[in-house]
Amino acid sequence: MMTNWINSLNYIDGCWLPAKSGDELESRNPADTRKLVATFPRSAPADVDAAVEAARRAYRTWRLVPAPARAEFIYRVGELLLQYKEELAQLMSQEMGKPIAEARGDVQEGVDCAFYYAGEGRRLFGQTTTSEMPNKFAMSVRMPIGVCALITPWNFPVAIPCWKALPALVCGNTIILKPAEDTPACATFLIEIFDKAGLPPGVVNLIHGVGAEVGKALVEHRGIDLVSFTGSSQVGAEVGAICGQTHKRVCLELGGKNAQIVMEDADLELALEGAIWGAFGTTGQRCTATSRLILHRDIKDKFTAMLLERTSKLRLGAGIELDTDIGPLVNSNQLKRVSNYLEIARSEGAEVLIGGEVAKDGELQHGYFFKPTILNNVSPQMRVAREEIFGPVVALIEVGEFEEAIAILNDTPYGLSSSVYTRDINRAFIAMRDIEAGITYINGPTIGAEVHLPFGGVKQTGNGHREAGSAALDVFTEWKSVYVDFSGRLQRAQIDNH
């Protein structure tokens, strides 16, 4: 495996290549920007053309490989991810900043995904059904779509590419991965694993570069049949518009403004564990992060005191350090974004109970650290209660009734994940029915999805597709209906039998 992460390259048609222009960018450790993690190509449309040409050529033969045989490659990817789990997690922690335990979990999600979709190679089921005509057979089958552009974010630099690549490949498509500029080394390591698994040249390709340049070129390219994009709702809308104009299939996994409801009958210690993990895990840089805590007035003061005590003990530091609870934000833009939202919160009248500022103590001054923050006296109409912050910031909202809590939870443009802590079984089932979200947890935090269940949301969180589970097969396949008429005569459905 590659050990020198100072020179990541594109991977096109089975070859590791620099950008045709020779231009390069840098990836630096967000916990200490003095440390260079990797250089990587600043690709251009000419590099995209080469990758698309390779993927289209490989598609002609890859789609004909039996699905169980394709699945054997996917299984090997899972075995290799297990083999290199620690090495990849260590790299991820340094390049993206998340604590090492979370980085290991990120890689393990890729492992789980690989083994799950390896099984799907023998379960790409269609349907057989009766025909309304005599001596006629009817069935439906799944067909691959073609060349898939996978545009992925930096917060889960192994898990999310695996969510997309593995079902795409087992369905018979070829892929071009465009990773985030902040995690090129992780993407390079991952694609090296695919290469080591023996996938034929051109089936898997990697293009580094700036999203507005190479990502845009991929989305607009006539040789791309499907775009799977994870990122902000604003950029997702632009991607969806371009794909609509060019008649590409598109799967969008976008933002969230997730809430955890804590009712007066909840197990407060359990709810506290969920709130801390949901709000501050991955430094709040998850689309499923808990950015709102909707608290019943009877327990709000007590729960707030518990939350403050636990938050005050969280340790900021480099993710690679074992005693770190919260790592850095990924880059300077994210640090500015979170800082700007704190200014907005104060201007709207929210009270900062703890945190609320950039951390600059000691070694933290060399990274993008923001103190874990709790906002009080937040109303549902405030921007900090409605817009995605993507940082270690949680807003407290007080309610008096369960129905009010559900209404406030639903009152955002997003609908990804949700959580309710209660011992009342009736409330639990009402929440499952009435919450407008793609994911609902009862007595669990808003983060922690499992790979065999559908992942995605409603409203501005996406365009209706789901990632993970068998639902992902509907993204990466087309349905074909097949009729076999063995009557020996013309039979006209809806005409001759009525």
Report on this model:
This protein is α/β, with parallel strands linked by helices. The chain has two domains: 10-254 and 462-481, Aldehyde Dehydrogenase, Chain A, domain 1, CATH 3.40.605; 258-442, 3-Layer(aba) Sandwich (Aldehyde Dehydrogenase, Chain A, domain 2), CATH 3.40.309.10. The protein has 14 helices and 21 strands. It has helices at residues 45-62, 67-83, 85-95, 100-120, 159-170, 184-196, 211-220, 233-246, 268-280, 297-312, 332-348, 402-410, 425-434, 471-475; strands at residues 10-12, 15-17, 24-28, 36-41, 127-129, 136-144, 147-151, 174-178, 204-206, 226-230, 249-253, 258-262, 290-296, 351-354, 373-376, 393-399, 414-415, 417-421, 439-442, 458-459, 477-485. Helix 2 runs antiparallel to helix 4, helix 3 packs across helix 4 and helix 9 packs across helix 10. The model has no long low-confidence stretch (mean pLDDT 96).
List keywords for this structure.
seven-stranded mixed sheet; 498 residues; single chain; 2 domains; Aldehyde Dehydrogenase, Chain A, domain 2; globular; alpha/beta; five-stranded parallel sheet; 14 helices; Aldehyde Dehydrogenase, Chain A, domain 1
Describe the sheet with the most strands.
7 strands, mixed
CATH topology of the largest domain: Aldehyde Dehydrogenase, Chain A, domain 1
Named CATH architecture of the largest domain: 3-Layer(aba) Sandwich
Q: How are the strands of the biggest sheet laid out side by side?
A: 14-15-16-13-12-18-19
Radius of gyration over alpha carbons?
A: 24 Å
The CATH top-level class label of the largest domain: Alpha Beta
Please mark out the parts with pLDDT under 50 across 5 or more consecutive residues, or reply none.
none
Distance between the first and last residues' Cα? 67 Å
Average pLDDT, all residues: 96
How much helix is in the residues? 25-40%
Q: In DSSP terms, counting alpha (H) and pi (I) runs of 4 or more, how many helices?
A: 14
Instruction: State which percent range the strand residues make up.
Output: 15-25%
The domain count comes to: 2
Envelope shape: globular
Q: What is the fourth-level CATH superfamily of the largest domain?
A: Aldehyde Dehydrogenase, Chain A, domain 1
